[in-house]
Amino acid sequence: MGKRMNLEALVPAFAKGGDFLVSERAHFRPVRPDAWAHAQMKAFAYNFLRLMTDPTPRKLIIAIDGPAGAGKSTIASRLARKLGYVNLESGAMYRALALKAIKSDLSFDDEAALFKLAHDSHIELVPSIGGNHVLLDGCDVSVRIRERDVTEAASRVSVHPRVREWMVARQRELGVNGGVVMEGRDIGTKVFPDADLKIFLDADPVVREQRRMEQQKIKGEVAANLAADLRERDRRDRTRAASPLMAAEDAVVIDSTKMSEDEVLAQVEELAVSRLKK
Ligand code: DC
Fold it and tell me: Could you tell me the pTM of the whole model?
């Protein structure tokens, strides 16, 4: 038995042929000649236990971006539930503003008026099991904002840089403490460029259209209209000048065209767990 030494002292002490046992406070003390493997095993066990028992584990910021119909909302909500995080649908905020613009009879092209409208609005996301409830100035508009006119308007109001700046600032406030899965179009590129995990969830446009039709149980002309709307919205979201929809350079791109929802979730969860261990 020798005197205790700290982590920094380990390497030079080893060079001299010492052997060490890792104590819980990351101190080392010489014990016996073959102790290197033993010390490594102890260190592994210590880290593993710390990870499993840490009362304040690191809470990640997870960004999920992608086009409409790729399955972002479902994956974000299921992942958040698994991790005990909240999921935030940033698109719902653009939808709430769009609804207010419709009600106020504002032009979707009037950036200054839309910015002022946003500034004077109180938009709240309330995470729940089936997605986010959305409160606009205290009124629950969760159902109304999913209707066709608001969907189209949301895509149009979101092209304006000043509107986006306002939204991005609010979204950062919501997610800054971590423990959040935020989904949208620019979460990994603009809202949280330093997110712990960035996923870009994509799928073939035809498959995305079909999934939406099945989700909404529609056929015939209504379905054809939905497909046309989706394509137009995609085009606008991808080609707008301010923060167009695109994968961040460090995003993991998942093409869900031939994957089941469970398969996508398993892949994303595995990535999240690997980030938690870092
Ligand atoms: O995700 P969603 O379909 O609810 O989004 C509605 C619109 O809001 C979408 O057409 C583009 C816009 N949006 C955006 O520009 N940036 C985001 N982070 C989220 C949505």
Answer: 0.80
Sequence-ordered alpha helix ranges (H) in 104-146: 111-119
Q: How far is the CA of 160 from the centre of ligand 1 (A)?
A: 12
DSSP state for residue 189 in the 8-state scheme: I
Report residue 153 as tokens: 């308007």
Atom of ligand 1 lying closest to residue 233 CA: 10
- What are the start-end ranges of the E strands in the chain? 20-22, 28-30, 61-65, 86-89, 123-128, 131-136, 139-140, 180-184, 197-202, 252-255
Q: Which two tokens stand for residue 87?
A: 């999921």
Q: Is the CB of 69 under 6 A from ligand 1?
A: no
For residue 171, which atom of ligand 1 is closest to its CA? 18
Q: Is the CB of 183 under 6 A from ligand 1?
A: no
What backbone torsions phi and psi does residue 174 show, to the nearest 5 degrees? -70, -35
The b/e string for 141-171 (b: 16+ C-beta within 10 A; e otherwise) is bbebbeeeebbebbbbbbbbeebbebbbebb
Gyration radius of the chain over CA positions:
24
For the segment 154-182, what is each residue's pLDDT rounded down to a tens digit?
999 999 999 999 999 999 999 999 999 99
Distance of CA 212 from the midpoint of ligand 1 (Å):
16
**pLDDT per position as a tens digit, 4-35:** 434 334 333 333 333 333 333 333 344 455 66
Q: Relative to the CA of 236, which ligand 1 atom is closest? A: 10
Beta bridge partners of 131: 128
